[in-house]
Amino acid sequence: MAENWVLTATAQTPTNIAVIKYWGKRDETLILPVNDSISVTLDPSHLCTTTTVAVSPTFQQDRMWLNGKEVSLSGVRYQNCLREIRSRAGDFEDKEKGIKIEKKDWENLHVHISSYNNFPTAAGLASSAAGFACLVFALAKLMNVKEDHSKLSAIARQGSGSACRSLFGGFVKWIMGKEEDGSDSLAVQLVDEKHWDDLVIIIAVVSSRQKETSSTTGMRESVETSLLLKHRAEEIVPKRILQMEEAIKKRDFASFAQLTCADSNQFHAVCLDTSPPIFYMNDTSHRIISCVEKWNRTEGSPEVAYTFDAGPNAVLIARDRKTATQLLQRLLFHFPPKPDTDLNSYVIGDKSILKDAGLEGTKDVEALSPPPEVVNAPAQKYPGDVSYFICTRPGEGPVLLSDESLSLLDPKTGLPK
């Protein structure tokens, strides 16, 4: 067989946002959490990682490019994922190309990896979750690994904890597990993305800068110093997980919203309870919470849930499409674009919500009247405090892209296109 072949696989994997938070590890090396968590997978057409993996006898070493820049693969998390997938690789044969790889050969073949996020990396939008999930999924396809998605999720977990939840669409639960080796700490799908397709998600990207305290450092400090974290993991989360599963199953939005907001606030309370305290939210985050809380209280039952990961970006989940248009109007009233910003680049993702809200340009935004719940108070506007909004919805899990033109690596050289 000719020894200059290059074999590639390209996958696309969504990001996810936790509605019951993962914060704190009981094992740093294996990335085992102190509590279960539940997340919603976001539509990959708006937020996803695309990864191409290639293998060839001509490659001299394992190499990786992230968003066009070469990055080191020497980190223990990458090494764990590569080792675990290689050890599970199967025999592969492509008679047409004259390629035959036996199980034992994978250990000696180097890989090239190219990965691209269509959203800011390390800005609190779970880019590492989508990234490691995509890496593991693509490598498993390339190396003919026969494990199911839950088993693969336990490998992705060793790259980034929340990555295990990106191997499924819809609502996903990461079971913390009891075993020391982490074999039972994996993700399972609770319901698929079609189960509750009324939901609309709007993300306010408050800052796409990298955060001051990384999640890894923050978690370690919380586990070491926060008494609230211990109470949360042992007493509060186990009950909330059961209530959240029930709310999702019944599509009970009032319970879902109450649990989601409470859990987000408690997670940030744990961050404040950490020594030294960690501040992930900023004034804009707090203003968005206040805006949603006022509206929910006026309506008498929750219209919108909010949740914040380890960063200032707000993830707002609206009960249905009608509510989402009212939410977008409120958000644009309080957080209009700067005068020179085009509305089409300020609200991205599913733009049909803009249309439903009757907003075609900045003139329409300027003409918005104050929401009824703020009529008696001076209406405050904060232009420029939000970088942009992303309109999205619950989405599907990872997919293999068979269209070669979508590959990020050149099929002849195995180098980035």
Polypeptide structure, described:
The protein has 417 residues and is of the alpha+beta class. Helices cover 33% and strands 21% of the residues. It has 11 helices and 19 strands. It has helices at 76-88, 127-142, 149-156, 215-225, 227-250, 253-272, 283-299, 321-334, 343-346, 352-356, 362-366, and strands spanning 7-14, 16-20, 25-27, 32-33, 37-41, 48-56, 63-66, 69-71, 92-94, 99-101, 110-117, 171-175, 186-191, 200-205, 304-307, 314-318, 347-349, 388-392, 399-400. Strands 8-7-11-6-1-19 form a 6-stranded mixed sheet, covered by helices on one side. The protein has a 5-stranded mixed sheet with strand order 15-16-14-18-17. A 4-stranded antiparallel sheet has the order 2-5-12-13. Helix 1 (76-88) packs parallel to helix 2 (127-142) and helix 2 (127-142) packs across helix 3. The longest helix has 24 residues, at 227-250. It is globular and about 75 Å long. The model has no long low-confidence stretch (mean pLDDT 94).
Topology:
Blueprint: E1 7-14, E2 16-20, E3 25-27, E4 32-33, E5 37-41, E6 48-56, E7 63-66, E8 69-71, H1 76-88, E9 92-94, E10 99-101, E11 110-117, H2 127-142, H3 149-156, E12 171-175, E13 186-191, E14 200-205, H4 215-225, H5 227-250, H6 253-272, H7 283-299, E15 304-307, E16 314-318, H8 321-334, H9 343-346, E17 347-349, H10 352-356, H11 362-366, E18 388-392, E19 399-400
Parallel strand pairs: 7-11, 17-18
Antiparallel strand pairs: 1-6, 1-19, 2-5, 3-4, 5-12, 6-11, 7-8, 9-10, 12-13, 14-16, 14-18, 15-16
Helix pairs in contact: 1-2, 2-3, 5-6
